[in-house]
Amino acid sequence: xxxxxxxxxxxxxxxxxxxxxxxxxxxxxxxxxxxxxxxxxxxxxxxxxxxxxxxxxxxxxxxxxxxxxxxxxxxxxxxxxxxxxxxxxxxxxxxxxxxxxxxxxxxxxxxxx
Amino acid sequence: xxxxxxxxxxxxxxxxxxxxxxxxxxxxxxxxxxxxxxxxxxxxxxxxxxxxxxxxxxxxxxxxxxxxxxxxxxxxxxxxxxxxxxxxxxxxxxxxxxxxxxxxxxxxxxxxxxxx
Lengths: 113, 116
Prior knowledge:
The complex is a heterodimer.
Chain A lengths: L2 E3 L4 E5 L4 E3 L2 E3 L6 E7 L6 E7 L7 E2 L2 E6 L4 E6 L8 E8 L5 E3 L3 E6 L1
Parallel strand pairs in A: 2-12
Antiparallel strand pairs in A: 1-4, 3-9, 5-6, 5-10, 7-8, 8-9, 10-11, 10-12
Chain B lengths: L4 E3 L2 E4 L5 E6 L6 E7 L6 E7 L2 E5 L7 E4 L6 E5 L8 E8 L10 E2 L3 E5 L1
Parallel strand pairs in B: 2-11
Antiparallel strand pairs in B: 1-3, 3-8, 4-5, 4-9, 5-6, 7-8, 9-10, 9-11
């Protein structure tokens, strides 16, 4: 069975600080993709960052970076210099070859002014 | 706006009634997906289409649910004899599969269904 687990239901950090969101997953596939999606309040879900499992190098998108530990099946998201606009639900997600995305339950992130 | 659009954005219905939602994907996106998101949970896969062909249905999709994409463009999701447990946000997503496309799925704003 494929599962995605986010152990932090809610987090709060001060603006400009760095925050790390945790995610672990389980899959029997060797080729898969991992994602972090952001869902702002009452707004649609957008992709933050993507990691292909066959790539050892951790993905980076501006202030967002991941720590991908394939052996440990861990995929954490680091947000540097956090901004008020980063306040949202963040979902860790897994996609195998079957093209279906399995989402975690999410982490609600509050950036405090 | 050329993103994924969904209508209606909100639907309130009484138990036992039928409802239909519509999703318009991004133009030329041949894959279209439906997900359901209940309060406090992440989205769960329901079904997806490659053009007009429905490729897979989740076990979550009971016989009361049906989805179509008749011309390979927009899609509809119908729920018959709604139950209170059907109350959720229904999300649609799309992506292209050709032209060097990535596997990113682009999500719509969702349709929030409340069954009284």
